[in-house]
Protein: Putative D-cysteine desulfhydrase 1, mitochondrial
Amino acid sequence: MFKSPQEKTISQKFCCSSSVMSGVQIEEFRAPEWVKPYISHASIPAFRVRLAQLPTPVQRFALPQEWIDHDPAASTGKFDVFVKRDDMTGSTLSGNKVRKLEFLLADAMHQRCDVIISAGGIQSNHARTTAVAARELGMEPHMFLRLKTPDQPHTAGSHGNMFLHKMVGTHVHLVPPLPYLTGLLPKMEALKEKLSETRGLASYIIPIGGSNSLGVWGYLMAWDELLHVDNVYERFDDIVLAVGSGGTASGLAIGNYLTGGKVKVHAVSVCDNAEYFHEHCNEMLRDLGLGDRTCSEEILDILDDYKGRGYALNTDEELKFCLQIAQATGVPVDPVYTLKAVLGMTTEMRNNPARFQGRRVLFIHTGGIFGLFDMRMVDHLDHAVVQTWHDERDEAKQ
Structure:
């Protein structure tokens, strides 16, 4: 493939003296023009590594009308729902986390790190994506994975995302359901120190969800894609997505604000509460130098009534709805994130339509497909649709 002199210089700078990064090309990052008047040069990433398959498509989300309209028989005022398929950013690198990792892992490469350390739940999509991407870039992944409950058997199994961890040789460290800052982060820092002392390896720590002021650029750039590829302002009034760590929602809300704020961004929380996510978004605004211009409460609508039993926990009714969504639309959603986001979106559409700015809604599918294979859905699958073929004409020939 032809490389410009500048691209060759960048590639050689990061690949010439380390087997960890041999053959990997990263590129200088150029922020879109709409960013530059508002965000200082010091807050803009220097580099990016291309991991995601972009742009992702937008298609109609054929949810049954009775799910989304208070009066399905009405001739006007119906919701028209589309979905942006960020579950299609790749195969094993699928989902929204890949966009964030393009900036986080470029930074790790810039620092010449050998090891990537991150964390998440036992079926974390972020942890799986980070581990696969780290291997793709020649770095060793270590993941701290939280068990669902303190008394859960300390076994990882081989289902869902864990299957891929074992395929790529992730070093998995199982831990109780600890909080990030006071529980997980100290363990990650201890591992970083240990790997340095015992093996001479340099480690790079990525927070849960990749949600920090560097990872947020993944969805500032996703907003640029929505703006210039998907014509979001011409086609839609509202955007809906799941929020679990805050980076994706913050990036979209900030991008929308900086380019005119013509749509309303709604985020359905799958854990924590509105106060927690507003604080995270406000932190991103401060880090980007925008804290004196606006606040999260003005640019992001958090729906925190749809967590159900809690993070990564589902009722039988929710799992049945997960199946119904796939059968009605052909678009699978995962039980942890996008299921609860669709549940929140459709419930608000029926019961509180005034919450939406308009009736043209874009749902951001943030991925999580491998979470469907953790076996929780098995008892809800319709086994009646599978049967041995029987044709009376074949019997008559005998």
Notes: Confidence is low (pLDDT under 50) at residues 1-22. The domain at 43-94+213-379 is CATH 3.40.50.1100 (Rossmann fold). The chain has two domains: 43-94+213-379, 97-210.
